[in-house]
């Protein structure tokens, strides 16, 4: 799947290193490295705060209250041609996890 069409509830098997266009998505009941917690238009300088807000809306918890996960994001190198911000939650220990962070 193209990375810029990811949406909340998509679970990404592995985030490739370096520049990439596609990622492999799986059901969250299967092992995965990251879960998409939100997507929006990128606003320079606000990426982390926007993703922290998306995490809270998606999970019902503040990122600081879920110490086993960290919030990160994917952003294109040219935000003028593709201003998409994808917010991800990943285990702080690295590796893969099983299950979803979505609020019940």
User: Biggest sheet, open or closed, and with what strands and sense?
Assistant: 5 strands, antiparallel
Relative helix content: 10-25%
What is the alpha-carbon Rg in Å? 13 Å
Pick out the low-confidence regions. Answer: none
Structural write-up:
There is one protein chain. By secondary structure, the protein is an alpha+beta fold. It has one domain (3-91). The chain is built from one helix and five strands. It has a five-stranded antiparallel sheet. The longest helix is centred in the middle third of the chain and has 13 residues, at 47-59. The model has no long low-confidence stretch (mean pLDDT 92).
Helix/strand layout:
Elements: E1 11-12, E2 25-26, E3 34-41, H1 47-59, E4 69-74, E5 84-91
Antiparallel strand pairs: 1-2, 1-3, 3-5, 4-5
Brief overview:
This protein is an alpha+beta fold. The chain has one helix spanning 47-59, and strands spanning 11-12, 25-26, 34-41, 69-74, 84-91. A five-stranded antiparallel sheet has the order 2-1-3-5-4.
What would the keywords be for this entry?
104 residues, 1 helix, alpha+beta, 5-stranded antiparallel sheet
